[in-house]
Write a structure and sequence with these properties.
Aminopeptidase; 4 helices; single chain; about 160 residues; alpha+beta
Length: about 160
């Protein structure tokens, strides 16, 4: 089941985020933030979790602003994470099915994502959700002293 994320979900959301950090291919972050910092850096709209029948969160998806300039008000960066135990079971696809129409209803015309090229599963699920690769950002950031590339993907709404 997919439902809106609440502040009470943070411990489980944080645990899944930390699994992504540990993988080395999900984020440049090396530790999870406080809920207050995480909350402030993500948009209040379009926060969803995928839960099992025991209310255990198996994945989550959110949006972040890409700029504070008003011209980019309809562009957001999408982030999706799936628990290790639920990967490959359609959780991310289901989260996209909730996020995309909700984001369009909120006035977003472009969703973008930055994904490590080694994260083949994430690239595949994004492409399945209608994202396309725009390009490769070479040596965009360092992780543990090593330069890393990311693939830049975007999904344009058909409503524009």
């Amino acid at each position: 089941m997919i439902r809106k994320m609440t502040a009470k979900d943070w411990p489980q959301v944080k645990r899944i985020f930390e699994e992504g950090i540990a993988s080395g291919h999900a984020t440049f972050e090396t530790k999870s933030p406080s809920y207050e910092d995480w909350d402030a850096s993500h948009l209040a709209a379009c926060r969803f979790v995928y839960v099992d029948d025991r209310e255990q969160i198996l994945g989550w998806i959110v949006l972040s602003p890409v700029s504070d300039r008003c011209v980019y008000g309809g562009v957001a960066e999408e982030t999706v994470y799936v628990s290790e135990r639920a990967r490959g079971k359609g959780v991310a696809s289901a989260l996209f099915e909730a996020l995309i129409p909700a984001s369009e209803a909120e006035g977003f015309w472009t969703l973008q994502a930055g994904i490590f090229p080694e994260n083949k599963a994430s690239l595949k699920v994004h492409e399945k959700a209608g994202f396309r690769v725009i390009g490769r950002r070479e040596k965009i950031g360092q992780m543990n002293g090593t330069w890393r590339d990311t693939m830049l993907l975007e999904r344009r709404s058909s409503n524009i």
